[in-house]
Amino acid sequence: MEPSMPSLSDLVVERVGFGIFVLDRDLNVLMWNRFMQDHSGVAPADVIGRCVFERFPELPRAWLARKVESVFQLGSFAFSSWEQRPWLFRFDHDRPITGGVDYMQQDCTFMPLVQGREVIAVCVTISDVTHVSVMQREREDAVAKLREYADRDGLTGIANRRYFEARLADEFARWQRYGGELSVLLFDLDHFKKINDEFGHVTGDTVLRTMAQRVAQVVRKQDVFGRFGGEEFALLLPCTPLGDALRVAEKIRHTISDAPVEVEGVLVSVTASVGAAAARPGATGSEAMINEADAALYSAKREGRNRSVARGEAMP
Length: 316
Description:
A six-stranded mixed sheet has the order 7-8-6-11-12-13, sandwiched between helices. The protein has two domains: 8-137, PAS domain (Beta-Lactamase); 151-315, Alpha-Beta Plaits (2-Layer Sandwich), CATH 3.30.70.270. It is an alpha+beta fold. Helix 7 crosses helix 8 and helix 8 (201-218) crosses helix 9. The protein has helices spanning 8-15, 34-40, 52-55, 61-74, 130-150, 161-178, 192-199, 201-218, 242-257, 286-302; strands spanning 19-23, 29-32, 78-80, 106-115, 118-128, 182-189, 224-229, 232-238, 261-263, 266-268, 272-278, 308-310, 313-315. GO terms for molecular function: diguanylate cyclase activity. Residues 180-313 form the GGDEF domain.
């Protein structure tokens, strides 16, 4: 007697490039295609007729049982994306290790198999979407980096003026709504044009980078430190009254001036003048704080530089 030939549908099910298996209401396996065999290492004879959890105890039991039962009850399709659950089965993938994923990323579809008007089984498909997931993660990482670069000053790596002013506006709006304390510092390097003229712009750029690094190491995590342009910098100090802001200004001033910057064997002495301002009732916007800090900075320079000033009160 000649063996029976498989039907075309059987051949298709065996050869498709995604996983297909069928479960009854008790979660016993009724069908297991070649994709499932090849990626799990489990032959159909070893799983058909047995509860899927018996052979694969690592499966998310409660989640899978709930998904299958919903299809039996509602008689409608269900779907699970890799973004919701990265995988159902821990299958290896063919992406290089640099892909950043441990297992094959999978989309799962749950389809009711109906006889008459009754759902008699649920067909589950497993699609390998590892490539799609890796590409999306890489795209998201690239967008995040671009966004970060857009917020950073190209020379010093700290926040740029656009980002600083946006954060200042946010903090000022929060202060208007909830009260509290909010201060800002503006400071620039004294006689910086002289440094450029005497030592060159390359040395000047090194001085700016070094100063930014020094200050970034002494500010708090919640503060926003940015470059306003040229040799002028700004520091946003949330939850900080003016007196404390002046103490921060002095700390920054000494951080800048206590040690010269060495550039190719040449020691360049640097000092800074600092202006401080705080949010006050009646202020129309965050620009008022910047204007007041700028006026205080101008006073610091007029009074001899290398000092911190707020509203005309200097700390020599």
